[in-house]
Amino acid sequence: MSKTLVSRNAFGGILHKDSNGFYTALEFFSILTACSRAGDGFLPSMDEKEEITCLHRSLDYARKIAWPPQNEYEELDYKDCFKFDSETQDTIKTVSNMLKAIAVPVPGRRKEAHWQSSHFLPYGEVLTHWDARPQGKTNKVSIREIYFRGTGALIFKILRSDPNKKRLNNIREGLEKIMGGDGLDALTTIVGELANHDLAKGDDQSLQVNEKEKNHSFIIGDKYEENIRQCAFNILSHDEAPRTTKIDALLYFLPFAMLRLQHGRAFNRIGNGNGPIVLVDCGFKPGQLRNQSKKSLDNAQSLILQALLQIDEELFRKDDDEDYKNPRKTLKEHFAAYYTRTASAVGLLNAHTGVRHYVLKDSIIEALVLAATGGGKELTYKNFCSWLYDTWGLVIDIHSAQKAQLLSRLDGSIFDDNSKFFSDHLKRLGFLHDYSDMTVFVRYGF
Questions:
Q1: In a shared domain, residues 63 and 169
Q2: I need a surface site. Which of 211, 255, 406, 419 has the fewest CB within 10 A?
Q3: How far apart are the C-alpha atoms of 246 and 314, rounded to whole Å?
Q4: Does residue 352 sit within a domain?
Q5: Does a structural domain hold residue 148?
């Protein structure tokens, strides 16, 4: 039996370290468009289609132009696509630079980028693609999972299992608007032409049942599923926001939501402490709050690992089983690591390695503002901080600290200072607005 069953039973799906960060959202977008390409439509409800099929594409030719292979057996035959003359090399270089400009960032990457580990931002159906890898030391390419391990499949199932049919229809329509068009126009046309020269074709692109969603993703019916649906709806309901802004917001929000789901469901199983809280340090200097933020992160990691170990014993250990091997290392490296890797990628941690604590960086703040203020509505600053705590467990101001029962051991003034730092950050980003009657509101746009 695979250890993926442990993650599935703990969190409702496969939260693997390889699918951390933006790969979570990329997998979701890839399934979304592959499902539409296969004829099942955008986000069909579970009532309409319990089992979905996908028609994936690899964009391996375009990715090899952006990140040329270093192996001789993978070299491209540019004559397949480019008319050779004195300016051909300059043309290829220009196309390569254009494609690199829409590459998905990989925070903390230390190795040189290669085409298999690099993906394009999903700015439209044409630019959205699946993982692919070479078939041994040959020039053949197969559509195979590398980074898409099932976390995006869980999100896909959560959204299309929405019992609120009106909201589901609105989410479907919103996704179709941002993904179903021509994307980035001229660049999309180029990528569409390059896709005709992909090596991963034939059997690899035949219709496939989405096994990760069918067999490894489960609907539990808790608040995290509801929060993901409502926040996705809110993000997509911002008519004033450009389509690329909404896609970027989902790229950050969806993995953020999954790491909070991972922490929350681990807490529900183990159930110790003050809840699955994230103590965010919005300041610039070390101090009491930063020390507590580090402990908050340590507690989350410990809780997730405890939940995995507990389920592993339930699944694999029998009475007086002398052959049972402690899986701590495997579970920590492969599944518990999803939390910190994803948190650092989306901007919830100060760094990718070393001594770390919780922060909120610009892009995740923008995503959360869009998620909280659907349809152009606004929230008072106090209510926005309350929403961050009530919905996602983020502790920033003194009111959230009181709800989390932290004031019995921490000085309340540090949360007042923390709240001031956060409000200043929101104002710098253009999301905090002062009115003449001294009220302060959070909203997207001006």
A1: yes
A2: 211
A3: 41
A4: yes
A5: yes
Average pLDDT of span 84-90: 75
Q: Two tokens at 135?
A: 């078939």
Nearest to 364 by CA among 305, 264, 278: 278
Distance between CA 306 and CA 315 in Å, rounded?
14
Whether 15 and 159 share a structural domain: yes
Strands 53-54, 208-209: parallel, antiparallel or unpaired by DSSP? Answer: antiparallel
Identify any residues that bridge with 133 across adjacent strands, giving them in sequence order. Answer: 142
Segment among 15-29, 292-306, 406-420, 427-441 with least mean pLDDT: 427-441
Identity of the residue numbered 109: R
- What is the distance between the alpha carbons of residues 337 and 322, in angstroms, rounded to a whole number? 28
Question: Same structural domain for residues 146 and 202?
Answer: yes
Q: Identify whether the C-beta of residue 312 lies closer than 8 Å to the C-beta of residue 3.
A: yes
The string of pLDDT tens digits covering residues 147-173 is 999 999 999 999 999 999 999 999 999
- Does residue 241 lie in a domain region? no
* Three-state secondary-structure class, residue 28: helix
Q: For the chain, how far is it from start to end, CA to CA, in angstroms?
A: 54
Question: Which pair of tokens denotes residue 274?
Answer: 């003050």
The token pair that represents 160 in the structure block:
């299309």
Residue 297, CB-side half-sphere exposure with 13 Å CA sphere: 25
Provide the residue type at 160 as one letter: R
Handedness of CA 61, 67, 71, 72 (dihedral sign): positive
Q: How far apart are CA 290 and CA 410, in angstroms?
A: 12
193 C-beta neighbours (distance < 10 Å), count: 13
The answer on 199 and 64 residing in a single domain is yes
Give the separation between CA 253 and CA 347, rounded to whole angstroms. Answer: 11
Question: Per residue in 94-148, pLDDT tens?
Answer: 888 999 999 998 887 777 788 988 999 999 999 999 999 888 777 788 888 889 9
C-alpha torsion angle, residues 142, 147, 151, 152 (rounded to 10):
-60
Token digits of residue 156: 């896909």
The candidate with the shortest Cα–Cα distance to 150, out of 304, 30, 328, is 30
Q: Is residue 227 part of a domain?
A: no
Both structure tokens of 230: 């409502």
Domain that holds residue 91: 4-222
**CA–CA separation, 175 and 41 (whole Å):** 11
Element (H, E) at 434: strand 432-434
Q: Domain ends where: 222, 248, 268?
A: 222
* Segments in 242-374 forming alpha helices (H): 243-270, 288-316, 328-331, 337-346, 362-372
If one counts every other C-beta atom within 10 angstroms of the C-beta of residue 95, the result is 19
Asked whether residue 311 falls in the same domain as residue 431, the answer is yes
* Domain-ending residue, one of 192, 222, 252: 222
